[in-house]
Amino acid sequence: MRNIRVLLVDDHDGFINAAMRHFRKVEWLEIAGTAGNGLEAIERSEALRPDAILMDLAMPEMGGLQATRLIKAQDDPPYIVIASHFDDSEHRDHAMRAGADSFVSKLSYLQEVMPILERLAQGSAP
Question: For the segment 35-55, what is each residue's pLDDT rounded down to a tens digit?
Fold first, then answer.
């Protein structure tokens, strides 16, 4: 299993801190950085070149959908997982049309995102 670098994007520090506490225990997972909105996510994606971005859907200044569209236009874009409390087919469809590779519910975040990251680390796209 290869190591993968992840950028965490969410406007709630508590959510980022909780995710980081869990992810730091995973030996093959490295937190490349964090961002608090879509504008920061775009800049940090270009600068840090993570393997994956775990992106909140709704954020101030620029949300996850617009940021995903712009990041996916970069050369060799990362795998993007959109996370949201709004877990319904409409939000999932919007995320996929924006170019997201996966969508997970924040209500079962770790249970849904860990298998995705494990498959990335094993070299197979989820």
Answer: 999 999 999 999 999 999 999
- In 3D space, the residue among 85, 11, 23 whose CA is nearest the CA of residue 52 turns out to be 23
DSSP label of 60 = S
CA 83 to CA 123: how far, in whole Å?
A: 22
Structure tokens at 50: 């993570």
Residue 11 tokens, joined: 């406007």
Q: What is the DSSP string of 65-121?
A: HHHHHHHHTSSSPPEEEEEES--SHHHHHHHHHTT-SEEEEGGGHHHHHHHHHHHHH
Q: Taking the complete model, does pTM exceed 0.90, yes or no?
A: yes
Other residues' Cβ atoms within 10 Å of the Cβ of residue 13: 10
Q: Is 57 within 8 Å of 64 (Cβ atoms)?
A: yes
pLDDT digits (tens, 9 = 90+) for 105-123: 998 988 999 999 999 999 8
**Nearest to residue 34, comparing CAs of 21, 53, 57?**
53
CA angle 113, 72, 106 (to 5 degrees): 25
